[in-house]
Amino acid sequence: MISKFISSGTGNIHMAGICGIGMAGIAFLLKSRGFSISGCDNATGDISTWLRSHGVKVVKGHSPGHISSGTDVVIRTPAVSMDDPEIVQAVAMNKPVLLRGEVLPQLLSGKFSVAVCGTHGKTTTSTFIAQALKATGRQPSWCIGGDSGPLGGVAGAGSGKEMVVEADESDGTLSLYEPDVLVITNIEYDHMEFFGSPAAMEACFAVAASKTRQRILFCMDDAVAGRVAAKYRGKTVSYGLSEKADITCRDVRLFQGGQSFTLVLKGRKAGRMTLPLAGRHNLQNALAVIGVLMECGLGADEIRLGLRKVALPKRRFEVVVDKAGIKVVTDYAHHPTEIAALIRMAQGVKARRRIAVYQPHRYTRTLALGSQFPPAFDGVDELVLVPVYAASEKPLPGSSIWDLYEHFRRYQAQNPGGKYPVVSVAASLEKAWQFVRRTLRKGDLFMVVGAGDVENIAGWAKDYFADSRKTARQGRLTLPAGVRREYPLGKRTTFHAGGCAEYFLESKSLAALAKLIKSAAAEKIPVRMIGGGSNVMVSDPGAGGIIVRLGGKEFGSIKMKNGLVCVGAGVSIASLLAWCEEQGLSGLEFLEGIPGTIGGAIRMNAGAYGDEICRTIVNVRYMNQKSVIGSVSMQEAGFRYRGSLFLADKYIIEGQFRLKKADVAAIHGKRQEIADKRSWWKGLRCAGSIFKNPPDAFAGKLIEEAGLKGCRIGGARVFEKHANVIVTEAGARSSDILALIEKIKSSVRLRNNIELETEVVLLD
């Protein structure tokens, strides 16, 4: 039915997920054949502009209202499931619903078709083939899963007989192709969301090979591709770097930005060829191109001309910034093999440091190949991981970014002595870019890696370096004296782990604090407080904005006023307890041994042994976001377990306590009793309890029952004497702690159906 419909060239087609590159190409080809095309997508962007310029109607978002009685066929991308309301509506109206991979094979009819398939390299190889054909004067059609500037778009409808397509195996529709020429670049297990085993994936390629009409070109360097092709020896041609390949090369000579080689055809030299690109994998792809051009009837001179004109598609080692001695490269690599090839390319670029941000693509791939990612990044100096791009998948146990981070730490521990990247985790793309932007220096190579929306970072980098007015924040702000940029904040915490504060200030007066808050508010830069660092973590990428610690006499005083003990927010808990003992004032002894300052204790409503600090508070003085000083009573503050509703966005500057007179010896004895109880954690690098106790349960008991005492990631471990405590060792990273926290939460969630909530605060 679909083949007759396609050949008719008339009708109304709606495409759900039209702004995916593969879908956009099909939309263009269908439009060029006379169909009326409409489409929608949750994310549009440049591709929608390109489609509209060719008469395709594109709207943002999915809706059942997009399907009307006049719709003849609906085409969906695999990212739009059959449960989507738009697709449900189409089914209810008896409209045919097709996958994109079911449509593209039908568009090859009537053309000399070249289908390029493989786990890696198919986009680049199909792009090279289309470019080379055009360079030799042919007028091919094409539909490729990558954008190419020289081609002018992801698809084209040429007047010539050749048609080049990238045949996607991810949803099994590769088996529907019947091309004249099939190129198999390699076969490595992937797309676990569809293929249950490597054998199932290999079988899909075998079906496509069995349907190929004229020639199967396969890479001899790949054993699985060779095994599939071996069944069809009468119509196969091998290519690759192996000397046994039918199409191979010798005497490879590298030059700046490219390489030349002697082409060898079935053991005979066939002249020198030039490829204007570096990289072993690009040389393999070029040999595949030569094979295809020969099947298209082109001679040596035409092939030589075509090969000289090839260029990488976008997001294949694409340099988006080369300014001020800094290079920013974006690349689509998302499989360990592809990433390893990318890093080899990067090592050929002279750089002071090689920095990468990587976004894993799909939970299924991250789970199945997790242990293969760490060695792929060997040679990178610094690596920032960001959360997994789901691509419509639901999370799976063992598939999160924290699980992947654990693979990196385990790999490095098991293989000492290698050149490994310093690995950290950023909570979002924005956090990752803020960190890299702050730390990029002349001579750096920065790589944006992954198949999801991580490419946004490359766009932000391009915009940032294109605008000469954008300068470092400290150049635009009027900040008080003493503000330090990229201050190592981790050392200020009791974990002794974590990155830098973008800006750090130890403010010693209300006037200085008010001035800082006003300046920061004008630039929309956050200001946050840190006390003694006893209940906080600093992410490895660091804490953005301005971090303030209150110090000096104005914030460090203790005095009696109207029967109340007035304590500056910068006073340490230890100093206050010593003062209270001298004065014979009781009520705060339960805080004994807790590090930190009074400001932090008030903010977190510090408590222990059945008591909480709010029970002794009368008033809290604070400064708000507009630098106005106010006061709030204990009742108005809305204190709760480990927090306060009112004070959450305020800067605490003083606490006023009502304490009871008591015998000094009795106070000392009570303090000593509590100190003895807490002696087990003396000298530990920890933040006390990590998790709040859930209702009717104890976090420590839940963690212990999950068998996690002693569990370690990197330099952090669950303390053997108290499961609700994480301790760190020298060399520990904040990401070690966070990964361990996520492991604990996941284990307790699966075992007890309880969601643990952290008590410790993260600054990122």
Account of the protein in words:
It is a single chain. The chain is α/β, with parallel strands linked by helices. The chain has six domains: 2-100, 3-Layer(aba) Sandwich (Rossmann fold); 110-308, Mur-like, catalytic domain (UDP-N-acetylmuramoyl-L-alanine:D-glutamate ligase); 318-466, Mur ligase, C-terminal domain (Protein-Tyrosine Phosphatase, Chain A); 473-552, Uridine Diphospho-n-acetylenolpyruvylglucosamine Reductase, domain 2 (2-Layer Sandwich), CATH 3.30.43; 556-677, Uridine Diphospho-n-acetylenolpyruvylglucosamine Reductase, domain 3, CATH 3.30.465.10; 685-763, UDP-N-acetylenolpyruvoylglucosamine reductase, C-terminal domain (Uridine Diphospho-n-acetylenolpyruvylglucosamine Reductase, domain 1, Alpha-Beta Complex), CATH 3.90.78. Helices cover 31% and strands 25% of the residues. It has 24 helices and 42 strands. The strands form eleven sheets. Strands 8-7-9-6-10-11-12 form a seven-stranded mixed beta sheet, sandwiched between helices. Strand 30 (607-608) and strand 31 form a beta hairpin. Helix 6 packs across helix 9, helix 14 crosses helix 24 and helix 15 (429-439) packs across helix 16 (455-466). The longest helix is centred in the C-terminal third of the chain and has 19 residues, at 734-752. The two termini are 56 Å apart. The relative contact order is 0.06. Residues 471-475 have low confidence and may be disordered.
